[in-house]
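pls read this stuff:
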Amino acid sequence: MQLPILRVDESEAKVNDQLTPAWMNLLLQKYRILGKKGEGTFSEVLKCQVIKDGTFRACKKMKQTYESIEQVNNLREIQAMRRLAPHPNVLELQEVIL
């Protein structure tokens, strides 16, 4: 069941239009997108709320597309987050949506 997106402001609507349909469908099953927090060369960060419990998360959308989960797991950022967890100054990697 696909849940409707909660639109908070105009910047959020722009972010939603940029998401790929497959990624958006997976994301919307678990999260409400509340807005765009930032953007870098390789990714953008979205503020999301977990539908089940109302907690907030930062969801990072990579600009490059990947063919397999192995390609994602080989990213230095993903490897570093897994090696450093748990650490008080590093966000915990919750899941990877491909």
